[in-house]
Amino acid sequence: MISKGGSEALLQTLVDSARTASPDYNILLPLLRLLVKVGQRDKEFGKKALELEALDVMLILARKNLSHNQNLIHCLWALQVFASRVTTAAMLGINGAMELLFKVITPYSRKRARIIRAATEVLAVLLKSKSNSRRAVNRGYLNGLLRLHQDWQSHDTSNDFIQIRRSLLLCLKHITNIQSGREVFLGAQGMEILFTTTQKYLGNQSMDAIISIVIQILRKCYPKCSLPLATASSYYSFSVPGNMSSGPPCTINKDDFEEDGEEEEDEDSDSEETKEEDDDLETDLKKLTSKPVLGWTEEELKQYEAMCLELSHNFQELNSKSGDGLSSEEDLGIPQCTYFCNIPTETSSKRHCQERDQSPRGLETGDTNFQDPPLKQMKIMKSTGAITYEMAPGKIGPYLLSNDQEEDSSRRESPNTQASFKEPPWGTEVCSCQNKNTFLSSSIRIDETSETMSNVLERHPMDIPFHNPYTYIVKAEGTKSVPDFKVLAFPDVWGHHSPPFSQPMLERKCGIQRAKIFEDVQRFIHPEKVMGRVVFSLDESWLLQSTDATEYLKFSSGFESGNLRKAIQVREFEYDLLINADVNCVQHQQWFYFKVSGMKAAMPYRFNVINCEKVNSQFNYGMQPTMYSVKEALQGRPHWVRVGYDICYYKNHYRQNSAAAGAPGKCHYTLTFSVTFPHNEDVCYLAYHYPYTYTALMAHLDLLETSVNRKKVYFQHQVLCQTLGGNPCPLVTITAMPESNSSDHLQQLRQRPYQVIVARVHPGESNASWVMKGTLEFLVSSDPIAGLLRESFIFKIIPMLNPDGVINGNHRCSLRGEDLNRQWLSPSAQHQPTIYHTKGLLHYLNSIGRTPVVFCDFHGHSQKKNVFFYGCSIKETLWQAGCTVDTSIISEDVGYRTLPKILDKVAPAFAINSCSFLVEKSRASTARVVVWREIGVLRSYTMESSYCGCNQGPYKGLQLGTRELEEMGATFCLGLLLLQLKSLTCSSQFMAQASALLDARKDILGHHLQRCSGKSSGSSSTDMELDDEPPCMEEIDYSTDCSSDEETDIHELDQQIQEMALVEAVGDEEEKNGIDNRSLSTSELYVSKHWTRKSRNSPQSSESTEVSSRGKI
Ligand SMILES: [Zn+2]
């Protein structure tokens, strides 16, 4: 009917019959009802009505019938339909529609409730037009609306008129979309009024329709102010060589800005998101298929020979009698790094040479690894034997076997420690001893407190695999930080052991977000109740914390990866926290790591990190931050654990100061969580995710190196290059030792294909380091699968591409304030040395015909669940972009899908459904894309691990812990083995060996393998789930200006018309009490339906801005 011109015909009829001197309402009313029905379904209806002059006619008709309920209500319905188009609404406003409506709805009266409902609904629609909102402000309607709101809210005690109250709030919501509206609203005490009228309903779910609009208004009108910081830029600056390129890249989401545009627009933004994403896809066939010529000279490449010693070393020292004659003490001739300066830049070679320990390492056996212990406490260790390095490869145990509880626990706790757990007094003893102050209150000073450490360690021996506090302390001396950190965080030194339990994702309680926002609004309404006591601040260092103060918590973060900038006590048990921007940056606040002490046990402390930047976070979907308690650790539970409740993440009222560098007006987000500490007067550390410092990596590599069975494992730790901050970036080579130095054996070694794995280019993604830890430990382990992998491949591993970022507590950047994973197209040796030399090494391998089989870059993902890959496919990209290119003429090896398919089967946390193989323009300079296109690695991947957890597979519903992350790293290696099995180049010998090994593991691998078969059959529902977040119990509203959301259900008007018809049929024209029961229940039903539908949609829509299927890498 609409397409055949039905709307026009109806409108014309309306105009004609209404313009007669005395219109026949017996015709007009049914005509209007029909018009409303049709109009709701015709997008162009408002425009047509305007063109046919139906607007004027309708207004005149309404004015004529102000006292005739039934006629009037029909007019109102029609007006509502006309006004659904914003430009038409503006026209109605110009012609006096709002004055008319105000006459109808004021003053407060319960008589004619049906009419009032219809009128407020029209008004709400009209006010979507900004010019109407301005008119309403100018005429003082806002005060009138507030008064009406108060009247209805206070008189409607039995909640019979929710619809009217809701429409009034919608009116306020639209008016406050404009600046002057917000100002008048504030001047009229709007915040106080809405706060007090709504507070009592907070816990009442049936009042959702009201509360959520109130919350939106309150958040929007909360006066914007800049963060309580002296400057937006990082507290630390570092003078970098050369000019800072173009300054920090400001990739700011346009949603982050308040919009108060003047012009009227009809919103029709249905598919904008997807369009934008697809616009980012690379569709230039040339760019997709051509392999650029790399601009490296032969000479430049030659420097990387030194990083591939395995190809040239002759293993002279290997006894040709296949090693039988080797005593374990004998140096097996693993080339010591000290002998080689692998530093590719001529300028810095002197520095580089000294980086590795100069002391020779005669460490094959014995309790200690150091002939000449750099610190005196090493002797203590030696004498007490409390800590030993003894970690026979057999003890490491294959991670793939970690299902075996018994083996696991034996690995975790030595009998020695287990015994001491049962002695409760000693834990407190330590804390009450005289060392308490040095020990508990000031972390561990590198210089003075090592002895304390030794004493404590003596009393509380523990055995964490591949961790040794002394090694950590020694290594920390070599770590160079911009702030020159002198203190070590206790958890880093003491070590973390995965707790013996898994932690489920936090179930989100309904109404948490609104309760938190109300608490925030309360600060505005009752500023006198806000303490505002700065208890920690880098900028105001004169604010020395009194150590005796008991009325507030003490904070600090002056240690590696720490980055707290300021802490403000706002209520007795509530603190606002600000984290430091990345060094030389004005942004990237997301990662945090700090120490807190002086707490009371069992009290709920609320922490608000108020300067977060991402638009959404897994903190809204079950993720918890991590905590490490020193007292717990001393009692034998050295665990980082997920803690916190009442967690949510939302946009707050802080905006970047316009005077500040960077992006003025940029929004900030609050992460709020509450923690109940386990002990009084404890020292606890809180972090965004399980910390993993650069020093931890260096210590780990040392321990790994000394743990390996040198007869079997070729383990080479070299320096790839120096970072800008003067820290060596390690490069690790792992393969099997040749059986002998016979040319056959050497030949076999030199022909092994390469696998290149890198991680932690983004410092805030500590999960990537835990995955890498698992990879490294597995590769050197005595697991036969690891053995076969070593015999088959040479692994080149760069475990931390951005050491400086990690050390200085950055979230994303290098010391130049650059995202290093956007520098791969043309890195410079001077500015991005780690990227430059990693690329150089890859290029070198390529130039000698040894292009890696797989290149993988480990990352962490803050918005999605599971572990998954990003890869590169020409065809998938072109298909997704809807390109017209004939893809059948492009030949593409589909082998890029094999590894993710394998991992999907064998790795519990891995989900192939989350993978994407699209090549985006915005990712053109990432490792994955550059290594794929320029180096020609078909299987070039980014592996993303969720900060949160899994929504599929055996770990469904669980948060990922370090154990699961390490397991992922180990299983990744298994994936490489299986990939080789499937490859054409797979030798029959390898096949036989691998099959035998895998058969022996069948029972263990079995349940993972089963996943595959179970999955492929009828899993359409899981497919759906993986793309988006599961529905949240309450609407999570990140943006305060959601003017585009559908507020009036298309069926609501139909419903009203039907109700009216019923009323007419009964002949009850008089409405004494407004709405009768029958219609009330139906209308309520509609409200609730409406809201459930919304709550299902909103997480998706709000997420879609950041969580594209590709996400950020
Ligand atoms: Zn990343």
TrEMBL record:
GO terms for cellular component: cytosol. It comes from the Eukaryota. Residues 690-980 form the Peptidase M14 domain. PROSITE patterns: PEPTIDASE_M14 (PS52035). GO terms for molecular function: metallocarboxypeptidase activity; zinc ion binding. Its cofactor is Zn(2+). Its EC number is 3.4.17.24. Residues 256-282 have a biased composition (Acidic residues). Keywords: Carboxypeptidase, Cytoplasm, Hydrolase, Metal-binding, Metalloprotease, Protease, Zinc. Residues 247-286, 348-374, 398-425, 1089-1113 are annotated as: Disordered. InterPro entries: ARM-like, ARM-type_fold, CBPC1/4, Cytosolic_carboxypeptidase, Pepdidase_M14_N, Peptidase_M14. It is found in: Cytoplasm, Cytosol. Residues 1098-1113 have a biased composition (Low complexity). It is an enzyme of class 3 (hydrolase). It catalyses: C-terminal L-alpha-aminoacyl-L-glutamyl-L-glutamyl-[tubulin] + H2O = C-terminal L-alpha-aminoacyl-L-glutamyl-[tubulin] + L-glutamate; (L-glutamyl)(n+1)-gamma-L-glutamyl-L-glutamyl-[protein] + H2O = (L-glutamyl)(n)-gamma-L-glutamyl-L-glutamyl-[protein] + L-glutamate. GO terms for biological process: proteolysis. Pfam families: Pepdidase_M14_N (PF18027), Peptidase_M14 (PF00246), TPR_CCP1_N (PF25571). The keyword Transferase does not apply. Residues 348-359 have a biased composition (Basic and acidic residues). The active site is at 944 (proton donor/acceptor). Its main location: cytoplasm. Belongs to the peptidase M14 family. This is tubulin-glutamate carboxypeptidase. The lineage of its organism: Eukaryota, Metazoa, Chordata, Craniata, Vertebrata. The gene is AGBL1.
